[in-house]
Design brief:
Chain lengths: 390, 389
């Protein structure tokens, strides 16, 4: 039973150390507590509405005015000014007073009446893709509506429906699934949550082990590690981190989505079953990587900049199918990659555990591989320190 | 020259420190270079190509098979599987195999030919936002074509010309101009800000690390002594070698983005070059400011992390700043990256007259004054404080 007490001892001390070391506490608790609400608040509007738009209406007819009125009435764009010519409109865009431009040529109404195709030109500032989307979707909606009426008039004697059936022998309908309003928060926050778990754990654990090493160099021995086997230290520490991260993960996974009204249509049993290998994979991954940490701070310098590339590698910001193979294989080294994909599909798309089977298996695989790697690294490290009796 | 020699002495000492610690070499050269290569090669095609898509074709006639073939021919779309029913396709979506579903119900061809207007549907999941919007575009275009082809055939048979037929089917047509990024290249949209942002993160961290590691190693007194206990000379001498390395790495991303990848540089090289130099200086100044704001290596680094990571979303390069809640919109002006983004848009992407942009340069330069607020305190910290965990 000696091994059991050894583990208990390491666990107790590591837990106390984690919770009393302000530096580690910042990463273990404060960052996960504060960051997600901040992100959620930032993206709270989900999409950009009422994009300021200028208009150059060279037609000045009832039809062109009708078009513009309808576009303005849509939630996507807001017409902030009518300009006499393009020069004036471009000036407003350069001054950042408007981001899009709707240009209606002089022959707009004439073309419609004569049965020719009438063109409306749209310009969008490309500093944000959402401006482009907004003006295009607003004006396309308006044109579809007006087209319907015009077609009905042209087919003499036809009803609106008949005209429609003639112009559209096959109708189509678009059904957005899951994230139905194409919301930015809904799309990005779940991925950010999983990355926060991995990155904060990495920085916190890296700091704690760096601290141990620093103390060692100063000749301060960690009493509670003396005479313990590497495996006992490993299990004891891992249990300590587990204790900290169970509430943190519960907060991120359960409370944040509910609090901010993000989609969360998972099955509880499945979600819990999926989070277990993720937490283990994450803990052992971070413990292994932390064995490269030689002082308290260098890990922050080394790994913070990785957060954004890792988020992109996970296949949310940039579709997984388009990630070049090199980056894809590198991304498989990180538990976050699988967690992001599994979590997004479970929470937003209602995937069951069997649907994220592949991610689930990989996470367990990582947990096992990183466990053994950590064990070897610990054996090497603590043997050198001559802290344990073999 | 005597005055300068103090600075040079500090610089010389700093160069030695930079060269003997792998952390510096890694974070100042390897990490930014990795970041540059990573983001640009990740999005090398500009738009993702061959996104996997599933099809449910319950009709299975030559007409519907033709629709599917044409859809597959779109650059962004690759049909990876045909499913027997919708439930199967939905499951494949939940399993992450496909991003979108094109559904053709039974009897589509028959109903279309007898003018009974059948409906095809397409489904996307915006949990994956980019594939969803690209597939929406492709599938909508395909549906328009499919319908249009049948309608046009009828009109041609009635003796309409092509122009007349198009006018009949689509009386008002939208012509969209994506100014200066006509292909909607995502790399232009993101990399232009991601790369300097990454450099910014590293400058923050390294500046702080290099200053406070002196405190930690108890060499800060020695460092200041070389500079005659003049904190300005000490900081200037220390950060001068950093500055040259950062500018080199800054030039690297400028050449990489605008030379190698040929991203729009419509205002010429000079405005962006000035911007890069100014941005590097501002980031260093910000690092010094954080050191003075909190007298501890760890706290300063944590603060730099907070500010640096928050810079990415709050600068508004991916999700527009105008859609933030008002409080955060105001907050965004406290982030140097916000000004970088605004200047880049004006000077590189749109290439508009300097008159519209000069004020942003001034705002960015204002950050250079930040260290002045804390430099006195910083000296006290360096001389009197001890490293604390």
């Amino acid at each position: 039973m000696r091994w059991f007490y050894n583990i208990l001892d390491v666990w107790k001390n590591e837990l106390i150390r984690s919770l009393t070391d302000i530096g580690a506490l910042v990463f273990f608790v404060i960052v996960p507590l504060l960051y997600p609400p901040l992100y959620a608040y930032l993206y709270n509007n989900e999409s950009v509405r009422e994009v300021p738009t200028v208009v150059v209406d060279n037609c000045h007819t009832s039809m062109s005015r009708d078009f513009l009125r309808k576009a303005d009435a849509s939630g996507d764009v807001k017409i902030i000014g009518h300009c006499a010519d393009m020069q004036e409109a471009i000036e407003l865009i350069h001054e950042h007073k408007a981001y899009c431009l709707i240009y209606i040529p002089a022959e707009f109404q004439k073309n419609i009446i004569e049965g020719k195709q009438a063109i409306v030109e749209l310009y969008s500032d490309m500093s944000g893709l959402l401006y482009y989307k907004a003006v295009l979707s607003a004006c396309t909606e308006v044109s579809l509506e007006m087209n319907q009426e015009i077609k009905a008039q042209r087919l003499v004697g036809a009803t609106k429906e008949q005209a429609e059936a003639f112009a559209y022998p096959i109708k189509y309908e678009y059904v957005p699934m899951f994230n139905t309003q194409s919301g930015f928060a809904t799309f990005l926050i779940p991925a950010v949550l999983m990355m926060i778990i991995q990155q904060t754990m990495l920085l916190g654990i890296g700091m704690l082990l760096g601290d141990e090493r620093e103390n060692k160099r100063k000749g301060i021995m960690a009493e509670h590690l003396k005479g313990k086997r590497p495996l006992e230290i490993l299990i004891g520490k891992a249990t300590g981190y587990l204790n900290i991260y169970i509430p943190v993960v519960a907060y991120l996974v359960c409370i944040i989505p509910v609090l901010f009204g993000h989609i969360h249509i998972w099955q509880w049993k499945d979600m819990i079953a999926f989070m277990i290998p993720f937490i283990f994979a994450c803990i052992f991954f971070c413990m292994f990587i932390s064995t490269f940490s030689y002082d308290r701070e260098s890990f922050i310098v080394l790994f913070v900049f990785m957060s954004v590339p890792l988020l992109f590698m996970s296949g949310i910001s940039w579709p997984g199918s388009a990630i070049p193979p090199v980056w894809k294989y590198i991304s498989y080294l990180f538990p976050g990659t699988f967690a992001v994909n599994g979590y997004v599909r479970m929470s937003e798309m209602g995937a069951l555990l069997k649907d994220v089977h592949w991610e689930f298996v990989f996470l367990w695989g990582q947990a096992i591989v990183y466990f053994f790697l950590t064990w070897f690294a610990y054996r090497k490290m603590y043997k050198k320190w001559k802290w344990f009796k073999a | 020259m005597l005055k300068n020699s103090k600075i040079l002495a500090v610089s010389k000492r700093e160069i030695k420190r930079l060269l003997t610690r792998p952390l510096y070499v890694f974070c100042m050269i390897v990490a930014p270079a990795f970041g540059y290569v990573f983001f640009t090669t990740l999005m090398e095609n500009g738009l993702p190509v061959d996104l996997p898509v599933g099809v449910v074709d319950e009709d299975n006639t030559s007409v519907t098979r033709n629709i599917i073939r044409n859809l597959d021919a779109f650059q962004q779309t690759k049909i990876v599987e045909q499913y027997h029913n919708f439930a199967e396709a939905r499951e494949a979506m939940q399993r992450g195999k496909i991003y979108a579903i094109y559904y053709i119900p039974q009897g589509t061809t028959k109903l279309a030919l007898s003018s009974k207007q059948p409906t095809v549907s397409f489904y996307t999941s915006a949990s994956y936002l980019i594939p969803a919007s690209l597939e929406y575009r492709d599938m909508k275009m395909m549906s328009e074509y499919a319908s249009g082809a049948i309608a046009r055939a009828t009109l041609y048979a009635k003796g309409f010309t092509e122009d007349q037929a198009m006018a009949m089917l689509q009386p008002i047509k939208m012509e969209m101009h994506a100014v200066n990024n006509p292909t909607l290249n995502y790399s232009i949209y993101l990399s232009n800000t991601l790369l300097p942002a990454l450099l910014m993160l590293l400058i923050f961290q390294i500046t702080i690390y290099s200053i406070y590691s002196e405190l930690k190693e108890e060499t800060s007194k020695e460092w200041l002594a070389i500079a005659d206990n003049n904190i300005y000379k000490a900081l200037f001498g220390k950060l001068l070698p950093h500055f040259f390395v950062w500018v080199l790495m800054g030039l690297f991303y400028l050449v990489w983005l605008y030379g190698y990848w040929n991203f729009p540089l419509n205002g010429g090289f000079l405005p962006m070059f000035i911007l890069m130099i100014l941005f590097v200086l501002v980031c260093q100044a910000f690092g010094v400011f954080l050191c003075g704001a909190v007298p501890s290596l760890r706290w300063a680094l944590s603060l730099a992390t907070l500010w640096g990571v928050l810079s990415f979303p709050i600068s508004g390069f991916s999700f527009p700043q105008m859609a933030f809640p008002p409080a955060l919109r105001a907050l965004s002006y406290l982030f140097p990256l916000r000004y970088y983004f605004l200047i880049y848009v004006d000077q590189a992407l749109n290439g508009i007259s300097f008159g519209y942009t000069w004020f942003y340069y001034v705002c960015l330069a204002a950050f250079l004054a930040l260290p002045l607020l804390v430099v006195g305190r910083l000296k006290t910290y360096l001389l009197e404080y001890h490293y604390q965990i």
